[in-house]
């Protein structure tokens, strides 16, 4: 089992800003004890991100793929191939 820690900027975590008020450099920071580095995930979607059909615990929908860097980080930490959407 992986221990993953997520940090959001205070204004986001406390709900003081809406999604349309976020700047392009606002990130969620994800870390894990066994990871060689923390992962920073932008909270403002890039128009270049690939939309994928996803299924999570029975829910089905569309998610934006966060890219190969995030997929590599989570795959390494969790020990199996996966994507962050």
Summarize this, please?
The chain is α+β, with helices and mostly antiparallel strands and 85 residues long.
Question: Mind explaining what this structure looks like?
Answer:
18% of the residues lie in helices and 28% in strands. It has a three-stranded antiparallel sheet with strand order 1-2-3. The chain has a two-stranded antiparallel sheet with strand order 4-5. The model has no long low-confidence stretch (mean pLDDT 91). It is built from two helices and five strands, in the order βαββββα. Strand 4 (51-56) and strand 5 (59-64) form a beta hairpin. It has 85 residues and is of the alpha+beta class.
Radius of gyration: 14 Å
Task: Work out the helix count.
Answer: 2
Mean pLDDT: 91
**How much β-strand is present in the residues?**
25-35%
Low-confidence stretches: none
Oligomer state equals single chain
The biggest beta sheet is recorded as: 3 strands, antiparallel
| Count of β-strands | 5
How far apart the termini lie comes to: 20 Å
List the helices and strands in order.
Answer: EHEEEEH
Apparent shape: globular
Considering DSSP H and I runs of 4 or more, what fraction of the residues is helical? 10-25%
Which structural class matches the secondary elements? alpha+beta
Strand order, largest beta sheet: 1-2-3
